[in-house]
Amino acid sequence: MTSLTDIEDMIARMAIGDRAAFDGLYAATSAKLFGVCLRVLGNRTEAEDALQEAFVKIWRNADRYRVNGLSPMTWLITVTRNHSVDRVRARKSKMNAGMDEAADVADAAPGPEALAIAASDRGRIVDCMAQLDPDKAGAVRRAYLEGETYQELADHYDVPLNTVRTWLRRSLLKLRECLSHDG
Amino acid sequence: MTDEIEKEDESALTAEYILGLLSPAEAQAYEDVLSVDPDLRAEYAFQTDRIVALTDDIAPVTPPPHVLKRIKETLFHEGAPARSGAGVQSWLQRLGLLPAIGGGLLAALAVLWIVTAIVPPSSGPVSGATYIAQIASADESLVVDASYDSANGNLVVNRAVGDPRPGRALELWLIAGDNPPISLGVLPADRSGRVPVSPDLALSLAGGTLAISDEPLGGSPEAGPTGDVLAVGQIVDA
């Protein structure tokens, strides 16, 4: 099992150009990060491209990891998720998502490298999301995991753009309030 | 009250930024503040660390092997059939040294042999040295002698010939095995000085290569050299 300290150490060594550390980080985290790419993009080929680009970014920005204050897995997932969202948006501006490939993804089984990263107390967000109105919690998920914009959320929930922004902001504040009672 | 509203704004904006809901202009403005405001950075880290848990139930899926292969091609220019010693060679090649290396490195080694032969082991900074190297450019316009003493963990450097370019610095690199260059730091402005080497890096000195590159004052802004590689030298036992 690879601990968060190990991952932090590998990122630090990558910052000074240590390729063995890159191999270690890839072995430990690529399956989780590929899962994230697949979830956001819903298309295997694109997810592979996104994972490739995300790891290139991770290698090149490893020296800047320290300044952002994030825990190592959070940083890796955030880089990967943000990059996947950028791709999904670029694609949407060209065409509609391929639904048949999305079905293919749903069958993907966890790989043998599945990494047991110590479960954290972050699970709190599940409780806090449950306290939101289901529509609002759904909108948060759509934005985070599918990269939906305010416009897309407005279309989906069939409400004006400003309305969706107002009610989502209110829900985000409620969520933040709940998260701060972390314990 | 105003503080309260500002705090709420800050929280909501942070969440919108993390979810990617801000317009590009808003996101840019947010990032501008984020880079200078530690409180906002703390808020961003707090919320990101928690919102990321929305990915906790995403099952890991092993990516196909060609993904790693493509990443390595992009990052390390790997992909050509590997041979032994290819790592060092490919790095030297990337550093633009390959044309000079046949004669240059051999010449440097020959000079080194002469230097070690004629310099009495007890003289000057070589005393107590574990490893030595002469880092020289092909035309010997830059020559730096280095000796590492494992007793104190210092690399003593003596710039015998040459100066940094005006407004630039000379940075010392260690190339060990297959690894990309690791910075040992900027050479002191004085001709002679000490460069501390951490114990784990010291382990990589044996059989490694030292190189000097031309960099901005303060050293390379990136993980590897950004300017011309001016000189190179093999590390040998003292």
TrEMBL record, chain A:
<feature type="domain" description="RNA polymerase sigma factor 70 region 4 type 2">
    <location>
        <begin position="123"/>
        <end position="175"/>
    </location>
</feature>
<dbReference type="InterPro" id="IPR039425">
    <property type="entry name" value="RNA_pol_sigma-70-like"/>
</dbReference>
<comment type="similarity">
    <text>Belongs to the sigma-70 factor family. ECF subfamily.</text>
</comment>
<dbReference type="GO" id="GO:0003677">
    <property type="term" value="F:DNA binding"/>
</dbReference>
<dbReference type="Pfam" id="PF08281">
    <property type="entry name" value="Sigma70_r4_2"/>
</dbReference>
<dbReference type="InterPro" id="IPR036388">
    <property type="entry name" value="WH-like_DNA-bd_sf"/>
</dbReference>
<dbReference type="InterPro" id="IPR013325">
    <property type="entry name" value="RNA_pol_sigma_r2"/>
</dbReference>
<feature type="domain" description="RNA polymerase sigma-70 region 2">
    <location>
        <begin position="25"/>
        <end position="92"/>
    </location>
</feature>
<dbReference type="Pfam" id="PF04542">
    <property type="entry name" value="Sigma70_r2"/>
</dbReference>
<dbReference type="GO" id="GO:0016987">
    <property type="term" value="F:sigma factor activity"/>
</dbReference>
<keyword id="KW-0731">Sigma factor</keyword>
<keyword id="KW-0805">Transcription regulation</keyword>
<dbReference type="GO" id="GO:0006352">
    <property type="term" value="P:DNA-templated transcription initiation"/>
</dbReference>
<dbReference type="InterPro" id="IPR014284">
    <property type="entry name" value="RNA_pol_sigma-70_dom"/>
</dbReference>
<dbReference type="InterPro" id="IPR013249">
    <property type="entry name" value="RNA_pol_sigma70_r4_t2"/>
</dbReference>
<keyword id="KW-0804">Transcription</keyword>
<dbReference type="InterPro" id="IPR013324">
    <property type="entry name" value="RNA_pol_sigma_r3/r4-like"/>
</dbReference>
<dbReference type="InterPro" id="IPR007627">
    <property type="entry name" value="RNA_pol_sigma70_r2"/>
</dbReference>
<protein>
    <submittedName>
        <fullName>RNA polymerase sigma-70 factor, ECF subfamily</fullName>
    </submittedName>
</protein>
Automatic annotation (TrEMBL), chain B:
<keyword id="KW-1133">Transmembrane helix</keyword>
<keyword id="KW-0472">Membrane</keyword>
<feature type="transmembrane region" description="Helical">
    <location>
        <begin position="97"/>
        <end position="119"/>
    </location>
</feature>
<dbReference type="InterPro" id="IPR018764">
    <property type="entry name" value="RskA_C"/>
</dbReference>
<protein>
    <submittedName>
        <fullName>Anti-sigma-K factor RskA</fullName>
    </submittedName>
</protein>
<dbReference type="GO" id="GO:0016989">
    <property type="term" value="F:sigma factor antagonist activity"/>
</dbReference>
<feature type="domain" description="Anti-sigma K factor RskA C-terminal">
    <location>
        <begin position="106"/>
        <end position="229"/>
    </location>
</feature>
<dbReference type="GO" id="GO:0006417">
    <property type="term" value="P:regulation of translation"/>
</dbReference>
<keyword id="KW-0812">Transmembrane</keyword>
<dbReference type="Pfam" id="PF10099">
    <property type="entry name" value="RskA_C"/>
</dbReference>
<dbReference type="GO" id="GO:0005886">
    <property type="term" value="C:plasma membrane"/>
</dbReference>
<dbReference type="InterPro" id="IPR051474">
    <property type="entry name" value="Anti-sigma-K/W_factor"/>
</dbReference>
